[in-house]
From TrEMBL, chain A:
This is Succinate dehydrogenase, cytochrome b556 subunit. One of its GO terms (cellular component) is membrane. The chain crosses the membrane at residues 33-57, 78-98, 118-141. SUPFAM superfamilies: Fumarate reductase respiratory complex transmembrane subunits. It is found in: Membrane. GO terms for molecular function: electron transfer activity; metal ion binding. Keywords: Heme, Iron, Membrane, Metal-binding, Transmembrane, Transmembrane helix. One of its GO terms (biological process) is tricarboxylic acid cycle. It comes from Halorubrum persicum. Gene3D superfamilies: Fumarate reductase/succinate dehydrogenase, transmembrane subunit. The lineage of its organism: Archaea, Methanobacteriati, Methanobacteriota, Stenosarchaea group, Halobacteria.
From TrEMBL, chain B:
Its main location: membrane. The chain crosses the membrane at residues 20-39, 59-82, 94-111. GO terms for cellular component: membrane. The lineage of its organism: Archaea, Methanobacteriati, Methanobacteriota, Stenosarchaea group, Halobacteria. One of its GO terms (molecular function) is metal ion binding. SUPFAM superfamilies: Fumarate reductase respiratory complex transmembrane subunits. Gene3D superfamilies: Fumarate reductase/succinate dehydrogenase, transmembrane subunit (1.20.1300.10). It is found in: Membrane. Keywords: Heme, Iron, Membrane, Metal-binding, Transmembrane, Transmembrane helix. This is Succinate dehydrogenase. It comes from Halorubrum persicum.
Length: 142, 124
Protein backbone atom coordinates (compact mmCIF):
# COMPACT_ATOMS: atom_id res chain seq x y z
CA UNK A 1 0.00 0.00 0.00
CA UNK A 2 1.28 3.39 -0.87
CA UNK A 3 1.11 6.05 1.77
CA UNK A 4 0.64 9.72 1.21
CA UNK A 5 2.73 12.08 3.24
CA UNK A 6 1.83 15.70 3.60
CA UNK A 7 5.18 17.45 3.66
CA UNK A 8 3.51 20.86 3.87
CA UNK A 9 4.52 23.73 1.68
CA UNK A 10 8.33 23.70 1.52
CA UNK A 11 8.20 27.38 0.60
CA UNK A 12 6.60 28.10 3.99
CA UNK A 13 9.41 30.09 5.58
CA UNK A 14 7.80 29.93 9.03
CA UNK A 15 9.14 26.35 9.15
CA UNK A 16 12.73 27.59 8.95
CA UNK A 17 13.78 25.71 12.09
CA UNK A 18 13.17 22.46 10.20
CA UNK A 19 15.28 23.47 7.19
CA UNK A 20 18.38 21.47 6.32
CA UNK A 21 21.44 22.41 4.24
CA UNK A 22 19.72 21.95 0.87
CA UNK A 23 16.84 24.20 1.87
CA UNK A 24 19.19 26.92 3.13
CA UNK A 25 21.12 26.68 -0.14
CA UNK A 26 17.84 27.13 -2.02
CA UNK A 27 16.86 30.16 0.10
CA UNK A 28 20.29 31.81 -0.18
CA UNK A 29 20.32 31.19 -3.93
CA UNK A 30 16.91 32.89 -4.29
CA UNK A 31 17.92 35.80 -2.04
CA UNK A 32 21.23 36.42 -3.84
CA UNK A 33 19.44 36.09 -7.19
CA UNK A 34 16.93 38.81 -6.21
CA UNK A 35 19.78 41.08 -5.09
CA UNK A 36 21.71 40.52 -8.33
CA UNK A 37 18.80 41.24 -10.69
CA UNK A 38 17.92 44.32 -8.61
CA UNK A 39 21.52 45.44 -8.88
CA UNK A 40 21.58 44.87 -12.65
CA UNK A 41 18.77 47.41 -13.12
CA UNK A 42 20.55 49.89 -10.80
CA UNK A 43 23.90 49.28 -12.53
CA UNK A 44 22.51 50.05 -15.99
CA UNK A 45 20.73 53.16 -14.62
CA UNK A 46 24.01 54.53 -13.20
CA UNK A 47 26.04 53.57 -16.28
CA UNK A 48 23.45 55.36 -18.45
CA UNK A 49 25.11 58.62 -17.45
CA UNK A 50 27.51 57.68 -20.28
CA UNK A 51 24.77 58.69 -22.76
CA UNK A 52 24.66 62.41 -21.87
CA UNK A 53 28.42 62.31 -21.18
CA UNK A 54 29.09 61.11 -24.74
CA UNK A 55 27.04 64.10 -25.93
CA UNK A 56 29.22 66.51 -23.99
CA UNK A 57 27.28 66.90 -20.71
CA UNK A 58 29.57 67.93 -17.87
CA UNK A 59 29.37 68.54 -14.11
CA UNK A 60 31.54 70.24 -11.54
CA UNK A 61 33.54 67.65 -9.63
CA UNK A 62 36.30 68.47 -7.14
CA UNK A 63 36.53 72.00 -8.49
CA UNK A 64 36.86 71.14 -12.15
CA UNK A 65 34.51 70.42 -15.02
CA UNK A 66 34.23 66.67 -15.63
CA UNK A 67 32.01 64.62 -17.94
CA UNK A 68 28.90 63.45 -16.06
CA UNK A 69 29.75 59.75 -16.36
CA UNK A 70 33.22 60.01 -14.83
CA UNK A 71 32.01 62.53 -12.22
CA UNK A 72 29.06 60.33 -11.18
CA UNK A 73 31.07 57.10 -10.89
CA UNK A 74 34.07 58.63 -9.12
CA UNK A 75 31.89 60.57 -6.65
CA UNK A 76 29.88 57.40 -5.87
CA UNK A 77 33.12 55.48 -5.39
CA UNK A 78 34.24 58.18 -2.97
CA UNK A 79 31.47 57.19 -0.54
CA UNK A 80 32.47 54.59 2.05
CA UNK A 81 28.90 53.26 2.08
CA UNK A 82 29.13 52.47 -1.65
CA UNK A 83 32.43 50.62 -1.12
CA UNK A 84 30.86 48.55 1.69
CA UNK A 85 27.83 47.79 -0.49
CA UNK A 86 30.24 46.69 -3.26
CA UNK A 87 31.87 44.21 -0.87
CA UNK A 88 28.35 42.94 -0.08
CA UNK A 89 27.62 42.69 -3.79
CA UNK A 90 30.81 40.68 -4.29
CA UNK A 91 29.81 38.29 -1.48
CA UNK A 92 26.33 37.87 -2.97
CA UNK A 93 27.71 37.32 -6.49
CA UNK A 94 30.41 34.87 -5.37
CA UNK A 95 27.93 32.80 -3.36
CA UNK A 96 25.45 32.74 -6.26
CA UNK A 97 28.24 31.66 -8.64
CA UNK A 98 29.64 28.93 -6.35
CA UNK A 99 26.24 27.59 -5.36
CA UNK A 100 25.16 27.84 -9.01
CA UNK A 101 28.16 25.70 -9.99
CA UNK A 102 27.08 23.22 -7.30
CA UNK A 103 23.54 23.18 -8.77
CA UNK A 104 24.85 22.67 -12.33
CA UNK A 105 26.98 19.75 -11.15
CA UNK A 106 24.10 18.18 -9.20
CA UNK A 107 21.89 18.57 -12.32
CA UNK A 108 24.57 16.69 -14.25
CA UNK A 109 24.50 13.92 -11.65
CA UNK A 110 27.74 14.89 -9.93
CA UNK A 111 27.94 15.22 -6.16
CA UNK A 112 24.30 14.70 -5.18
CA UNK A 113 25.32 12.57 -2.20
CA UNK A 114 27.61 15.36 -0.97
CA UNK A 115 25.27 18.27 -1.73
CA UNK A 116 25.22 19.41 1.91
CA UNK A 117 29.03 19.41 2.12
CA UNK A 118 29.32 21.33 -1.15
CA UNK A 119 26.89 23.94 0.23
CA UNK A 120 29.08 24.43 3.30
CA UNK A 121 32.14 24.62 1.02
CA UNK A 122 30.38 27.32 -1.05
CA UNK A 123 29.73 29.33 2.12
CA UNK A 124 33.30 29.02 3.39
CA UNK A 125 34.83 29.85 0.00
CA UNK A 126 32.50 32.85 -0.37
CA UNK A 127 33.64 34.13 3.02
CA UNK A 128 37.32 33.60 2.17
CA UNK A 129 37.11 35.31 -1.26
CA UNK A 130 35.11 38.22 0.18
CA UNK A 131 37.51 38.81 3.07
CA UNK A 132 40.53 38.54 0.73
CA UNK A 133 38.93 41.14 -1.60
CA UNK A 134 38.19 43.74 1.07
CA UNK A 135 41.54 45.59 0.73
CA UNK A 136 41.07 45.94 -3.05
CA UNK A 137 37.47 47.13 -2.73
CA UNK A 138 38.15 49.61 0.08
CA UNK A 139 41.46 51.00 -1.29
CA UNK A 140 41.34 54.77 -1.68
CA UNK A 141 38.02 55.21 0.14
CA UNK A 142 39.62 56.94 3.12
CA UNK B 1 -7.09 15.07 -30.00
CA UNK B 2 -3.49 15.18 -30.96
CA UNK B 3 -1.07 15.73 -28.18
CA UNK B 4 2.19 17.54 -28.30
CA UNK B 5 5.15 15.17 -28.01
CA UNK B 6 8.58 16.58 -27.34
CA UNK B 7 11.66 15.92 -25.25
CA UNK B 8 11.15 19.40 -23.86
CA UNK B 9 7.96 21.00 -22.78
CA UNK B 10 8.03 24.76 -22.64
CA UNK B 11 9.02 24.74 -18.94
CA UNK B 12 11.82 22.30 -19.69
CA UNK B 13 13.22 24.49 -22.42
CA UNK B 14 13.33 27.50 -20.10
CA UNK B 15 15.01 25.31 -17.47
CA UNK B 16 17.68 24.31 -19.99
CA UNK B 17 18.29 27.92 -21.15
CA UNK B 18 18.58 28.95 -17.49
CA UNK B 19 21.40 26.40 -17.06
CA UNK B 20 23.16 27.33 -20.31
CA UNK B 21 23.08 31.06 -19.45
CA UNK B 22 24.31 30.18 -15.93
CA UNK B 23 27.39 28.44 -17.35
CA UNK B 24 28.13 31.44 -19.61
CA UNK B 25 27.55 33.97 -16.80
CA UNK B 26 29.87 32.09 -14.43
CA UNK B 27 32.80 32.82 -16.73
CA UNK B 28 31.85 36.32 -17.90
CA UNK B 29 30.79 37.64 -14.48
CA UNK B 30 34.08 36.45 -13.00
CA UNK B 31 35.94 38.16 -15.87
CA UNK B 32 33.87 41.36 -15.39
CA UNK B 33 34.59 41.54 -11.64
CA UNK B 34 38.25 40.73 -12.16
CA UNK B 35 38.79 43.30 -14.93
CA UNK B 36 36.83 46.17 -13.38
CA UNK B 37 37.75 45.74 -9.73
CA UNK B 38 41.14 44.04 -9.64
CA UNK B 39 42.92 44.96 -12.92
CA UNK B 40 41.30 48.41 -13.09
CA UNK B 41 39.84 49.83 -9.90
CA UNK B 42 36.26 51.08 -9.85
CA UNK B 43 37.28 54.52 -8.56
CA UNK B 44 39.60 54.98 -11.56
CA UNK B 45 36.78 54.65 -14.09
CA UNK B 46 36.71 57.30 -16.82
CA UNK B 47 34.52 57.82 -19.87
CA UNK B 48 37.62 57.64 -22.08
CA UNK B 49 38.80 54.28 -20.66
CA UNK B 50 35.30 52.75 -20.86
CA UNK B 51 34.96 54.02 -24.44
CA UNK B 52 38.36 52.58 -25.40
CA UNK B 53 37.23 49.12 -24.23
CA UNK B 54 33.78 49.37 -25.83
CA UNK B 55 35.18 50.49 -29.20
CA UNK B 56 36.61 46.97 -29.61
CA UNK B 57 34.05 44.76 -31.29
CA UNK B 58 35.07 41.70 -29.24
CA UNK B 59 34.58 43.52 -25.90
CA UNK B 60 31.39 45.25 -27.06
CA UNK B 61 29.89 41.93 -28.27
CA UNK B 62 30.87 40.17 -25.05
CA UNK B 63 29.30 42.90 -22.90
CA UNK B 64 26.07 43.00 -24.94
CA UNK B 65 25.83 39.20 -24.76
CA UNK B 66 26.55 39.48 -21.02
CA UNK B 67 23.66 41.96 -20.67
CA UNK B 68 21.27 39.76 -22.66
CA UNK B 69 22.12 36.54 -20.80
CA UNK B 70 22.14 38.24 -17.36
CA UNK B 71 18.76 39.85 -18.07
CA UNK B 72 17.24 36.57 -19.21
CA UNK B 73 18.78 34.56 -16.36
CA UNK B 74 17.73 37.10 -13.70
CA UNK B 75 14.23 37.78 -14.94
CA UNK B 76 13.52 34.10 -15.66
CA UNK B 77 14.83 33.30 -12.17
CA UNK B 78 12.51 35.87 -10.58
CA UNK B 79 9.54 34.57 -12.60
CA UNK B 80 10.23 30.97 -11.57
CA UNK B 81 10.71 31.97 -7.93
CA UNK B 82 7.29 33.66 -7.98
CA UNK B 83 5.63 30.70 -9.71
CA UNK B 84 7.27 28.48 -7.10
CA UNK B 85 5.67 30.60 -4.38
CA UNK B 86 2.26 29.86 -5.86
CA UNK B 87 1.69 32.62 -8.42
CA UNK B 88 -1.09 31.51 -10.76
CA UNK B 89 -3.82 32.70 -13.12
CA UNK B 90 -4.19 36.33 -14.15
CA UNK B 91 -1.58 37.52 -11.64
CA UNK B 92 0.94 35.15 -13.21
CA UNK B 93 0.18 36.50 -16.70
CA UNK B 94 0.44 40.11 -15.52
CA UNK B 95 3.75 39.44 -13.72
CA UNK B 96 5.12 37.56 -16.74
CA UNK B 97 4.45 40.38 -19.20
CA UNK B 98 5.59 43.04 -16.72
CA UNK B 99 8.90 41.20 -16.42
CA UNK B 100 9.14 40.92 -20.21
CA UNK B 101 8.51 44.69 -20.50
CA UNK B 102 11.11 45.45 -17.78
CA UNK B 103 13.62 43.24 -19.64
CA UNK B 104 13.01 45.06 -22.93
CA UNK B 105 13.56 48.44 -21.22
CA UNK B 106 16.74 47.17 -19.54
CA UNK B 107 18.15 45.76 -22.79
CA UNK B 108 17.25 48.90 -24.73
CA UNK B 109 18.88 51.17 -22.18
CA UNK B 110 21.92 48.90 -21.79
CA UNK B 111 22.56 48.77 -25.53
CA UNK B 112 22.04 52.55 -25.81
CA UNK B 113 24.70 52.96 -23.11
CA UNK B 114 27.08 50.55 -24.85
CA UNK B 115 26.60 52.47 -28.12
CA UNK B 116 27.24 55.79 -26.35
CA UNK B 117 30.60 54.45 -25.12
CA UNK B 118 31.47 52.92 -28.46
CA UNK B 119 30.33 55.94 -30.49
CA UNK B 120 27.87 53.69 -32.36
CA UNK B 121 28.13 50.03 -33.25
CA UNK B 122 31.83 49.16 -33.51
CA UNK B 123 32.45 47.58 -36.90
CA UNK B 124 36.18 47.22 -36.34
Amino acid sequence: MSQSYNRGLIEDFSRWREFQAGMWAWIFHKFTGWVLIGYLFTHIAVLSTAIPAANGATMMFQGSETDVFTGTIVSLEGLLLVRILEVGLLAVAVFHMLNGTRLLLVDLGVGLEAQDKSFYASLILTGAITVASVPTFIAGAF
Amino acid sequence: MAERYSSFNSGGRMWLIQRVTAAFLLVVLAFHFFLLHFVHHADEVTLAASSARMEQLSYYSLMVLFLVTATFHGVNGVYNALVNQGLTGTKRTVVKWSLVAASVVLLFQGIRTANAWAGGFPLL
